[in-house]
Amino acid sequence: MSNAVKALGMETSTSPMMVQDFVLQTLRLVEAVVDSVDWGVYDVLLPQENMRRVTFDVEVAQERNDCELVTFGSPFFESMVQLSRQYGRIQVRRIAIPVAGPPNHSDERLSSLAHFVKCKPPRAVSWRVEEGLLLLCRFHVTYQADDIVEDMISVLVDVDSLAEVTDLLPQLDSHWFTTGTHSEIPAEEDGRRMAGPDSPTSLSLLPLASPHSIREVLARAASAALPNIEKGMRRIETEYQAQLNDELEKSRYYYETTLQTLRRQLENTLDTGRGERLRLKIEATERELTLRMEDIQRAYEVSTEVLLDQCILYRAPVIDVQTEIQQRTDKLPFSFRYYPWAKQWAPISCPVCHKNTTQLQRHGPDWHCGCVD
């Protein structure tokens, strides 16, 4: 038994059960077909793969030659580890802090958050405290070129507005959280209590249903991570540029020197047969030069593999400030969000493309940042 296993207090007899539980849970997660055909023996059919017969028991594997032993470090176990990395669970953290309301002089601050084209500045009319949802997505990025480089990119998204608020991570990390999925809201509180300047102490922090699906939120997080991924690719390409140029120059010099020699031989020969052979060899060398240059370029191209490594759902208070924005004689509603735990206003996101913006305009009944023709 290894020292690491001893230190963790794991008995040898429990290790197969740990492996078995992990593998079977992963197989259920990926919707594989698992059939128990005998004591300790399973037939496993993964999507788009052939059926495999596996066991987690050493003695069974020794007695039967039709079973693959699955244990720590075995190929099948390692493949399950790779699969499980693509299917993570969401960890939930909840923060509860006293909330008195939005900061003073909100109207002035709201005017600086976003410009509403051909409209008067927003005017706050009411506010309420809600339990907001923030999803932190950590993406494991593998850059593959001449070498393999790994990175972790974190993106924080406001689930309600799909605004990217990654810069608020330090403020989140400065608070204590409770974990789990259940709040301590009294059972009799079955609705959302409205709050206003006259009732700052009677606030109920009730959970809200998200207007967006988890797929939409994850897609927004992935989109927000893309610029950082591309930045990483450019950095690696820059680091390899000198090495790439050196290899290209060496190969080009070799082939051009060879071509010069062949062309001189062609010029100096009077043998028709030999001349034809030299011309064919020159053409073949030119083609080989082109292919070699392409191969070298391809070898230094940076490709990426991006996996969602972890999700953390933060349940934290948010103040929803309802405003009126006047356009000619029309008074249009718009909602701003204030994070009391960070003492910051949420960035404005376009309701159409969901990208952060500082300018909005009307297109029919909807606001947009200019992304709609």
Describe this structure in words.
This protein has helices at 3-7, 15-29, 58-63, 75-85, 106-113, 169-173, 214-268, 272-299, and strands at 33-38, 41-45, 52-55, 68-69, 90-94, 115-116, 123-144, 148-158, 178-179, 303-327, 330-339, 344-345, 348-349, 356-357, 359-363, 366-368. It has 373 residues and is an alpha+beta fold. It has a domain at 3-85: Dihydrodipicolinate Reductase, domain 2 (2-Layer Sandwich). The protein is flat, with a radius of gyration of 31 Å. The chain starts with a helix and ends in a 5-residue tail after the last strand.
Alpha-carbon distance between the two ends: 68 Å
Q: Major β-sheet, in short?
A: 7 strands, mixed
**Residue-averaged pLDDT:** 81
Rg result:
31 Å
Query: Which outline best applies?
Result: flat
Architecture of the domain at 3-85 in CATH? 2-Layer Sandwich
List the total number of helices: 8
